[in-house]
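tool_call: predict_structure(chain=1)
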Amino acid sequence: MWCIQEITPEYRKRMYDILDLYAEPYDTAKPVIGFDEKPKQLIGDVRMPIPARLGKIAKQDYEYVRRGTANIFLAIEPKGGKRLTQVTNQRTKKDFACFLRMLVKRYHNAKRIRVVLDNLNTHKPESLKQNLSPEQTKEILRKVEFHYTPTHASWLNVAEIEISVMDTECTARRIPTIEMLTKEVNAWATGRNRKRKKIVWTFTKQKADMKLRKHYVS
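tool_result:
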């Protein structure tokens, strides 16, 4: 938020749209879901770490070896306390399309799925049309409603909060393989879902007007 220079009418329109979604009462038939992805560098140890034991802290050598990169998709339903994750090798248009298809299957009972996401070029309906069958694409677009954040306003995406939690509790450490990353992320998401961990969003349109009005331009 600190980098905001000016807020155009288009910026404000998109911001209000997302803040209106977050302010709605919880509705299982029309869930609001934040979506984002997180790159993760796979890093292994050169020397075996020494685990913590009574009276001794864990020790890990500063030297490490890079083993490539992976991607983590994350969708969070903040008021329902549900999240869906998937670890992939890349974050291509096909990967996005396949994850969205999985998301729709997870919410098969919902009438409409409102997804908040940023403006990355892969996050478009064209990604579905290029990588899924016409029937699959039609099914997804019939249920999914895209709500894009303004440019340079990823702070409006509630998924960033959940990704920060994931980093703190799970992924902000050395993980050497995509298999191990998948196992760890799945275990973390399962635990959070079991506890129905929610996100309470308190930034409203009124607070936006008070805090950001000086940046508004006509």
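agent: Helices lie at 9-23, 93-106, 125-131, 134-143, 159-171, 178-194, 205-212. Proceeding to next step.
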